Amino acid sequence: MGLGTIMPRLIPRLFELPGLNIIGVIDILLVAFLVYQAFMVVRGTRAGHILLGILMMVGLYGVAVGFGLEALRSLLSFIVPYLGLAIIVLFQSEIRRTLARIGRKSWVTAGFRAPEAVHEILLAVEELSAHKIGALIVIERDIGLRTFVESGVHMEAQISRDLLLSIFQPGLPLHDGAVIIQKDRIAAAACFLPLTTNPSLSRNLGTRHRAAIGITEETDCLSVVVSEETARISIAAFGELVSGISPAELVNRIHEHFGIQRPVRTEAVDTGREVESGTVRSDSRSVEKVNHP
After folding, report:
1. Which sign does the torsion angle of CA 205, 218, 238, 263 carry?
2. Cβ burial 55-84 (10 Å sphere, 16+ → b, else e)
3. Which residues are 234's β-sheet partners?
4. How far is CA 254 from the centre of its chain?
5. Does domain 115-276 have CATH number 3.40.1700.10?
6. Exposed, middle or buried: residue 247 (CB in 10 Å: 0-12, 13-18, 19+)?
7. How far apart are CA 200 and CA 238, in angstroms?
8. CA distances from 202 to 77, 135, 234, 246, 281 (A)
9. Whole-number CA gyration radius for the chain
């Protein structure tokens, strides 16, 4: 069946489509939103190239059917039916991350809420940075981190500067791995985290920074990293790493991410940072007073 046979049948049906009403507009907007979110999930990842290849195969199959290319259609007919299963297998991590974000209990304040704990974390991070001691601190929000907590050493200890400094002392058993904080407690130390597979990130990023990004790609937690090579403080959230931030800005970002009251007031600070989210940029701006509801 050629294109000349299909078009005469298709054109009359276009004029038979029902009129567009408010329900139709809402339906179209919802579908567009879901498609947009799907593309945002795979943007800048290896999954994006895989999705593009799948779409090209589907399009090629449509061309083969439309123009009567029987040999090509027969070949693709053995492949196209299995694309649904291939999508589930190839995109399992992206699907899991998307469903976790959709089901996130954003209306339940079950995450990190203790302002006094922020001060203890800040003191520890400043001390670790001053002595160039590597550290990775993950703060849970709404999506639970129990799977990763079980991979480390269970602690259930109160957050304190001295305890965090003791955990990350070089040469000690708990130095490697991440500290996971749940609510106002240190849940575990020496935890193993998934590494990001984003190919757009800089090759200069080490394992600690890639783990900080990887865990925020799958959950809504916040990761704080101290580099043992440069002593720079970095923070990661939703798959984006911001490096070279000041301690004052670190506090403001924690307050903003968790909606904690009593935000601190900081003086204007000139910052030049690299933002790792598929692109690299540097900016120079002021960090001013931030008010959170």
Report:
1. negative
2. eeeeebbeebbeeeeeeebeebeeebeeee
3. 225, 243
4. 16
5. yes
6. middle
7. 15
8. 40, 20, 14, 21, 12
9. 25
Structure tokens that stand for 72 in this block = 């090509």
Whether 180 contacts 138, CB under 8 Å: yes
What pLDDT, in 10s, does the model give residues 231-244?
999 999 988 899 99
Question: What are the backbone angles phi and psi of residue 271, rounded to the nearest 5°?
Answer: -125, 140
What are the pLDDT digits (tens) for 29-82? 998 888 887 777 666 555 666 777 778 888 888 888 888 888 888 888 887 777
Convert the pLDDT of each residue in 255-285 to its tens digit: 888 876 554 443 433 444 444 443 333 333 3
57: left (phi over 0), alpha (psi -120 to 50) or beta: alpha
Q: What is the enclosing helix (H) or strand (E) of 178?
A: strand 178-182
**pTM, full prediction:** 0.61
Confidence band (pLDDT; 50, 70, 90) for 111? Answer: low
- Domain residue extents for the chain: 3-102, 115-276
